[in-house]
Amino acid sequence: MRELRWLAAGAAIGVPALALVVVAVVSVPATVAAGLGLVMFGAVMWSARQLATVQRRRAAAVLDRQIPDPYAALPADLPARFRVALRDPGTWRDLAWLPCQFFVGLAGLVLPVALWLGGIECLIAPGLRVLLPEPTGFDPAVLELTGRSGPWTWALVPAGVGLAAIAYRLPRYLIRAQAWLAAALLGPTSAAGLAARVDRLTATRAATVDASATELRRIERDLHDGAQARLVALAMHLGVAEDVIDADPTGAKALLAEARAGAGAALTELRDLVRGIHPPVLADRGLAAAVEALALSSPVPVELDLRLDRRLAAPVESAAYFATAEALTNAIRHGGGGRVRVCLVDAATVLRVVVRDDGRGGADPSLGTGLLGIRRRLSAFDGRLRISSPPGGPTVLDMELPCAF
User: Which of 230, 267, 299, 316 stands the most exposed, by the fewest C-beta atoms within 10 Å?
Assistant: First the structure.
């Protein structure tokens, strides 16, 4: 029944689609005659886009993948908007889809209903022969085909079962066919998709360069304010100790102790800085061991599901590690939950990382830099981040990194 409702909705979309085609055809001579067709054609384009948007969403739910809008960005000026929309290939693909949707939508509903009615009529043919013993003007077609013969009407029962089985299975294929048609006509073309991907990669490359420059400035600042200052102080202590070691051995000894403590602090800061750039455990033992180390250092329990059978490229492992670390930090600091689950799956072509916490939810990338940093880090590899965080939780970060290299 749910499938028939989907097909009925497709047929309902097809009815105004045909009406829009008629209005579009009428608007052409009206434009030539008096210019009034411009308003009509503009209304047709706008209405076609609304219907196409609805069908794209329905098709995306069936195909389990997003179907992006193929339209060019529209300016604010109304005449310019009309000119851009008129030149947009997406507009003409919408208009080509309208009559297709009318025919496939109507056929998609009529065919299963006709099969159900035919199957039911075949199944009840023996009963109809009994209930209608004499020929009447309203004899069902199946009785006319069998000459109202008892044995032949019983032979229709298996045919009714077959028709009912076909009617039960056919709608799901018709639904997928309509979804594929919508994806083919209403989605972006391969050229448009490639252009959009180039634009996206250009933007993400610029963001990655900016992030790298910011990270280099941070490292420079940490070195200048931390380890470098301690090393300067260490050199001063050693110089003073060298000057007073003959006259004041006790004071020189104290200065050397301070210098040793400063050297230890500088070494600790340098190790922390290096660990922030590339953790040694990640380089030595791989991504799984590095994530296990993150889980062990977490103040909340972390459940791990690591399905990694190989070492990935170092940049991919680094991006996955820091994205996981940032997701864990966000879950602990902002989620407020009592448990976090981390799942890493190597799916041959992509590395999938899922971080789920049972916190309060409501995570919003626009409210902080953590999620934006994760998205920027993944976008450098043409990766994706999907966020599900309804109020009340749970929060789920689903990350994908291409790793087929």
Answer: 299
